[in-house]
Amino acid sequence: MIITGKRALVLGASRSIGRAIARKLAEQGALLILPWLDWPDSVATLEQEFGGKGSDNLLMRVDVRKPEEVAGLAAAIDRQYGGLEILINNIERGGMPILHGGYHREINHEQWQLEMDTTLHAKWLLFEHALPLLRRRGEGTVVNITSIAGIIGRSGPAGLLFNDAYAAANRGATLLTETWAQQAAPTVRVNELMLGLIDSRHGPGTRGWDLLSRQQQQDLLTHTLLRRTGTPEEVAQAVVFLIRDADFLTGAVIRMDGGYILGGEYPAAMPEGYL
What we know:
single chain, 275 residues, Rossmann fold, 7 strands, 44% helix, globular, SDR family oxidoreductase, NAD(P)-bd_dom_sf, SDR, SDR_fam
C-alpha cells in the first residue's frame, strides 16, 4: 500500500509508541486521526505537533471504552475524510505486578476490568466501527499492537511486568487478529505486531522498570537474545513495513521481542552418539 494521502487512525499517539508511529506515518504522507483521552501534558505536545491551524489531521477526545464515543469517532472520520485506509489498534492498559501488586488490593479493585476494557474490548469496538470505513476505500490494513504477555503470562522474569488480565486480554487479541483477517478479506488486511520489552512500555522509561533491582533488570535482558530492549522508533518502522511492504500478508502475528520468547534455553551441544 502506498501510504501517501491515506487516512490513518492511530490509537495511543499521546504516548511514546503511538507517537512514534504517528510521526513515521506523517513522514510517509498520511493524514492522521488521533484520538486522545488523558495524559494532559502528552496531549498538549500532541496538539502542538499534529494539530493547529491549517492542519488536515483530526484530533479529538474519545473514550474508546464507550461504544457511543467510538461511534462518534467513526462518524467524524466519515464526515471529514469519507473513509479510512489504516487502523493502528494500539490501545491498552496493563498494571505491572512490581508496581501495582495484586488485584486484591483496594487501589486495584477496578484494575482487572480496566485492563480487559482497554486491551481487548476497545480494540474490538474500534475494528467494528472502522471496518465499514476501511472497506469503502477498497484497500485497507489493520495492525493490532499486542504483547508477548499473551504467550508467557506471569511466568519467568517478565512476570514482574505483566499482570494476569493484561496477559489474558493479549491472548484474546491474537484470536481476534485471525478472526478479523478472515472477516475483512480480501480488501482489508489484518496483522498483529506482538511486542516484547520496549523502552517506555515494559522497559526503561517506566515506573515499573525503575522499581526492579539491577539483577531483575539484567535477568530480563539476559532472557532476550539480543540483550537489549527495543525502541518506539523500531516499532514504528515495523508498522510501516506491515502497511507499505507486506501486501501479501494477512492474519499473521509478527513477534518483535528481540528473542525474549526464545531466550532462557539454548540448544545443547551435539553429543558424539553411541552407535
